[in-house]
Amino acid sequence: xxxxxxxxxxxxxxxxxxxxxxxxxxxxxxxxxxxxxxxxxxxxxxxxxxxxxxxxxxxxxxxxxxxxxxxxxxxxxxxxxxxxxxxxxxxxxxxxxxxxxxxxxxxxxxxxxxxxxx
Length: 118
Fold this sequence. Notes:
The protein contains 3 helices and 5 strands, in the order ααβαββββ. The protein is α+β, with helices and mostly antiparallel strands. The chain folds into 2 domains: about 1-30; about 35-105. Strands 1-2-3-4-5 form a 5-stranded antiparallel β-sheet, covered by helices on one side. The longest helix has 28 residues, at about 1-30.
């Protein structure tokens, strides 16, 4: 009778260990060091392309009349945009044109000043 009780108990522990391993492994897979924004978007500032402007329009973003962008060194399809209407108040946006995704508005990143060309 004891052997019948041990089998379900050992199966329970194996299942628990498996679940623990499955929940820990995804976190360890992304153990690479996080890049600073200035490393992820090293520059230079680029003119915002029509493709990026189309994604902003598609997502109903009217961030301003002036915008500059930087391409990500980590993901070539991601751009950091700084947008302004008056050259005083700037907002940041992250745009992925191929996925039609826009995140923002946000604050400017420390270490990444707006372009001097405006």
